[in-house]
Amino acid sequence: MTVKVIIRRRFKDGNLDKASTMLIQARQNAMDAQGYIASETLRGCEDPNEILVLSMWQKKEDWDRYANSDVRMGLEQSFSEIMEGPSQSIAYELGMQKK
Predict the structure, then answer these.
(1) Domain containing 19 — which CATH number?
(2) Would you say residue 99 lies in a domain?
(3) Residue, of 95 and 58, whose pLDDT is higher
(4) Which of its termini does the chain have fewer beta carbons within 10 Å around, N or C?
(5) Is residue 86 in a domain?
């Protein structure tokens, strides 16, 4: 079943240019992953250092595989150096159908 994943990150002041470059790289990495459909990036109106990435995957297993991949883990480590606290991610199934 298709899932949407919300990833929330809050970057330290002065790091949005570097974060933007890293987010582009993260999207390029995800695009090569099995099951990736699309994603979008949102910037907080009240807190411009808060960034949400919404990505869509064919199955939760596809997201899990990518989320635990070495390439993503390495990028998350780089993100952590310019963030205030850890990133938070949660997956949601589309619709209300039961499994």
Answers:
(1) 3.30.70.100
(2) no
(3) 58
(4) C
(5) yes
Looking at the structure of the chain, the number of domains it has is 1
Phi, psi of 14 (to 5 degrees): 85, 5
Q: What is the pLDDT of residues 6-46, one digit of tens each?
A: 999 999 999 999 999 999 999 999 999 999 999 999 999 99
CB 30 within 8 A of CB 55: yes
CA-nearest of 39, 87, 94, 34 to 64 is 34
Range of the domain at 11: 3-93
Provide the pLDDT for residue 46: 97
Output the CA torsion 57→61→63→69 (10° steps).
-150
Within a domain: residue 98? Answer: no
